[in-house]
Amino acid sequence: MIKNFFPNKTALYALIAACFVVCTTMGVRQTFGLYSSEFEISGGTSNTEFGLAIAVHAIFWGIFTPIFGRISDRLGGYVVIVPALIFYSIAMLLMGNNYISGMWLQLNLGLFVGLGLAGAAGTILTPMISKHFPNENRSKAAGLVTASGGLGMFIFPILANIFENISTWQISFIIFSIILFLMCIPGFFVKLPQNTVAAVNSNIDNRSLNEVLKESFAHKGFRLLILGFFVCGFQITLIATHVPRYVQDKGLADWTGMAILALIGFFNIIGTLIMGYLGDKYSKKILLSGLYFLRGIALILFIFLPASNLSAVLFGTSFGLLWLATVPATNGIVAQIFGTKNLTLLFGIVFLNHQFGSFLGAYLGGYFYDQFGSFDYAWYLAIILSFIATALHLPIDEKPLATVNKTI
Fold this sequence. Notes:
- The protein is 80% helix and 0% strand.
- The radius of gyration is 20 Å and the shape is globular.
- By secondary structure, the chain is an all-alpha fold.
- It has helices at residues 2-5, 9-29, 36-43, 47-75, 78-96, 102-120, 122-130, 135-166, 169-182, 184-187, 195-201, 209-217, 220-249, 255-279, 284-304, 309-322, 326-338, 343-372, 376-393.
């Protein structure tokens, strides 16, 4: 069965390598929200400044993902993965040496981390790997890569807590910097599909960038998908950045914030694998619509029920199942409609709007907190957006475009 799943050795090596890289890049990112208090103590960083830095890296992540995607579609993933990991590693090393004040914070946690994630996170490696697989296995392959990110999001908050208890938070950053740099080794194995696969599945599209973009934006479903992914970005970045401080302010135990992020990571593995499996069998737009509806319910219960360690654990579990489960289905819809020739580029464009949502989730969470003393208004907005996204996905037409330039 495994032999039938992998078209060739290139696909096997690329998938395994991508899983290692994504586990690390997404895992390290999941720890940032744990350090807002430490940054405040060590560098005098306000919640607004911290949220802005996360927002800045979200925007650079979003802007450079389609750019790096265009490069990787033509030259191979390793061309962008390795430099991105080096940027990410440098950022962590500098922050581990207390370069976390003023513009240093925006440069390191903002620009450098953003470039690192743009070239080496699950959002770009998922479509890179999808190009290696036929349509009947594409969502499952995407689910495996995304689930690896969930594994990292489970492991790294726990590691961060262990390293900080043994030594200092700065040591955590330095160790993470070393791990990120070592990921350059598997990064070299993410290459373009073999010619035998490419002839069927992912030929290079010789049309101009303008022609490709014109075709995609003319499609109503593509525009709706972009709008829906904005909501995903707003919600997950709001939670990852600010939920540790939120539960702290509610008087819950110090371990609760770490536990929520770790549980989100663990159950994200299950959620993305399930969505990857279901996405190959059922309508992806219906799955996405249902997912956003359930997110809204989970947020309502978390915000309006009395705060407790139990409610925090249940929230981490439930939202984890829904966390990055959006990615296999969203990536799958793009591939199903437009084919795989420009998949990394087109998914990068969808993801850019996700990052506009991420910018607002990170920044507004910190801004509302500093202005009003609570995150409540940000949570209310996240709930409303859930139900808007539920409606947005329903009219999407998932049928493939009939064009000579498209490859299924």
